[in-house]
Amino acid sequence: MSIEVPKIILDTDPGGDDSFTFLWLMSLAKQGLAEIVAVTSVDGNVHAQLTFAASAKLLTLGGFADVEVGRGIIGGSDRDDVEDAGAIHGKDGMGNLSHTLPESIQSYEAARSSDDILIEKLKESPGEMTIVAIAPLTNLAAAEQKSPGILKLAKEIVIMGGAFAVPGNITPEAEFNIAYDPEAAKLVFDTCDHLIVIPLDITRKLILTTEIAKAIAQVKPESEVAQFMISLCQFMTGTALAFRETEGTPGFLVHDAATLAYLFYPETLTFRRAQVWIETRGEWTRGKTLFDRRNKAKAGANAWVAVGVDAVNLLAVMAEDLKLIL
Ligand SMILES: [Ca+2]
């Protein structure tokens, strides 16, 4: 039996947890378990110019310099009520460490727009592409608006976003990726029925501790990737503690990485089927995700939502894979 490896477009706004997702994905690709088709950077945690540069540098660091990076669509949201996340991820989105990484040959000025790359790749191989969306959904919504029906051509769309039965992380009720551009999220959720949603409900349990980072790095402490991993983990741990995100545990939440657990280690997660809605008009709840919990016949569903995680196992398999990219 031949097994087709997932063909992945990574839609990302690095981001400390995005950076660990990059490293994990590149490790899986090196092992022949994934194909990285393109990276579409997103205006999100920090400005599009910075997330582009960080994406290109991370690919270069991991040995995938030739993977095309798109530049993110700017300013999807029509309201200015959610600030970026530079305070958590560093001014450059990666713990102020980007100057330590190898320069990329790709330039922001010459790059194609992320929505154009999404449209091209989805049209080229209908039903084959997996979009791993770990940022505000601005690019995906822009692609859908430019080319209606395009997102349905994806095999599936795996989204880190939302908070259902837990508090938000950017407002009392909303999670950052959805709240940064709720209109984009609404468009994607209203258009698609093949979404996989990895919400804060489970990612808030995924603390990558400094202990785990050290255990990974000690396999090859002198390597550039190991040193980057340790420094980034130290920086992210500082802000995670300051923002009280880990209940005092020294480490930080690797939200985005859980998307890869769904694809490669599904035994670490459990899901329920649901019709997910995005609140766009609430005074206090803008950007909130919800589904109907009542015992009542449902008209349909657009997503599988992760509701349970084996956090110890997920972090353990991630750590083993990360050792293979040092
Ligand atoms: Ca992200």
Q: What this model shows, in words?
A:
The chain has 326 residues and is α/β, with parallel strands linked by helices. The protein has 12 helices and 12 strands. The protein has helices at 16-30, 48-62, 86-89, 114-124, 138-146, 176-179, 182-191, 200-203, 210-217, 224-242, 258-264, 311-323; strands at 7-12, 35-41, 69-70, 129-134, 156-160, 195-198, 207-209, 251-253, 269-274, 277-278, 289-290, 303-309. The strands form 3 sheets. It has an 8-stranded mixed sheet, with helices on both faces. Helix 1 (16-30) packs across helix 12 (311-323), helix 4 crosses helix 5 and helix 5 (138-146) crosses helix 7. It is globular. The structure holds calcium ion.
Keywords:
326 residues, Inosine-uridine Nucleoside N-ribohydrolase, Chain A, binds calcium ion, alpha/beta, 12 helices
Structural class: alpha/beta
Helix content: 25-40%
Tell me the distance between the termini. Answer: 31 Å
Which fold name corresponds to the CATH topology? Inosine-uridine Nucleoside N-ribohydrolase, Chain A
DSSP summary: helix tally: 12
CATH superfamily: Ribonucleoside hydrolase-like
Number of E strands: 12
Please state the average pLDDT score.
Answer: 93
Percentage beta strand: 15-25%
Q: Which CATH C-level class is it?
A: Alpha Beta
Bound molecules: calcium ion
Low-confidence stretches: none
Q: What is the succession of H and E elements?
A: EHEHEHHEHEHHEHEHHEHEEEEH
Number of domains: 1
What is the general shape? globular
**Describe the biggest sheet?**
8 strands, mixed
